[in-house]
Structures are given as C-alpha cells and as structure tokens.
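Tokens for chain A. Residues wanted.
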C-alpha cells in the first residue's frame, strides 16, 4: 500500500494535510438545508451562494490592487473576477477572503512581500481546517479508489479502506470540504478513471488541478 502512503505525504505537501485534532467537521450549509421541502431549487440557492462568496473574494482582490497601485481607479479585472466560476466551496471562499482582507487592513506597507504572503497562507490553511467534511461525505471517493485497487489486484477493498482510514482519509476530508459541487463531481469522475499502477500518484494528479484552481486570480 506504499502508493497510498505516498499520496498522503503529497496531499500534506500540497496543503491538504489533515486538520488538527479537536477540529470539528462542518455541518451542511444552513442556506441549502433551509430550502428543503420548499419549491425553491437547492441548486439555485447554491449558485447564488457561490456568486456571493466570489464577490467577497473579488472585493478583497480589488482592495489588494488599490493598495499595490496606490490609486482608486477601477480594478481592470473586476468584471472578469465577478463572472468567474471556480470549484471552491462558498464557505471556504468566504473564510479565505475575510481573513485575507483583515490581514491586508492590518498590514502596513507593500503587500507583495513574503511577510504578507505568510499571513495569507495562514488564512488559506485555517479556511481548509474549517471546512473539513464528515467521514461519510468522502464515501464516493473512497469507493472509487478502493474499487480500482481491488480490480487491479493491488489490495482487497477492505485492506484499501483500512489504509485510507489510517492515512489518506483525513486529507480527503479536508480537500473535499474545500470543493463545491462542480469540484466534487470532477474529482469523482477523475477517480473513476484511474488506471492500474501507482494509484496514489494518480489520486494526487486528480486533486491538484482542482485545488490549484479554487481561488480565482487575474492572469
């Protein structure tokens, strides 16, 4: 099961390390739960939640732009940012944006320095810790990974599940919690197309482009 152990290390290096002990899995978005049993489409509510979170992120980037340029002219990338759709969960996006904006407001001087970058990095890590999902929410991904390993003869399904529980599962809970529905679907589709071989490296390859694209940044 070396490949899954390798994947665990790679997940941690990529910023998907398990949340500290004592952190609690988040509950479902109350805005989505609230519409259950009504005629309002949860997908519509979810899309609105994503747009609102993206707006908060864009407002932070605009403030960063003004701080860096020293003027109050309209941010050239504002419209592009507001229209962007990423694979980030709204909660993760809001937490990252709010923390980063607070750090910017407190930071004196040029924000494009290693000191400010360290502050923002901590914001991203704390946001990931806050959106860790409950174990049952990673079941589709565990099923895809272990099903492939069993079919390839690399391990039995139960052996794989046991190994995941000991190493990779906490990283999956953290990463999946950071994704919205689009991200989770893309991740699951990729996992279902794993080939025999180094499954651990392939899992990381499925995850990296999604995690790298969670936060929209101007090109």
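Reply:
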């Amino acid at each position: 099961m070396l490949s899954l152990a390798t994947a665990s290390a790679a997940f941690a290096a990529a910023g998907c390390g398990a949340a500290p002990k004592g952190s609690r899995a988040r509950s479902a978005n109350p805005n989505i739960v609230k519409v259950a049993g009504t005629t309002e489409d949860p997908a519509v509510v979810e899309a609105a939640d994503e747009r609102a979170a993206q707006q908060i992120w864009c407002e932070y980037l605009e403030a960063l732009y003004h701080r860096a340029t020293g003027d109050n002219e309209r941010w050239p990338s504002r419209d592009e940012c507001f229209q962007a759709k990423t694979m980030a969960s709204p909660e993760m996006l809001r937490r990252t944006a709010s923390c980063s904006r607070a750090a910017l407001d407190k930071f004196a001087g040029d924000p494009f320095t290693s000191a400010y970058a360290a502050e923002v990095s901590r914001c991203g890590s704390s946001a990931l810790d806050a959106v860790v999902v409950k174990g049952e929410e990673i079941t589709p991904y565990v099923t895809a990974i272990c099903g492939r390993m069993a079919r390839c003869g690399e391990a039995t399904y139960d052996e794989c599940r046991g190994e995941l529980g000991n190493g990779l599962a906490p990283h999956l809970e953290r990463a999946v919690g950071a994704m919205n529905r689009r991200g989770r679907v893309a991740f699951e589709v990729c996992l279902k197309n794993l080939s025999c071989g180094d499954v651990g490296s392939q899992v990381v390859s499925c995850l990296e482009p999604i995690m790298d694209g969670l936060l929209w940044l101007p090109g």
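The radius of gyration is 19 Å. Residues 6-10, 17-36 have pLDDT under 50 and may be disordered.
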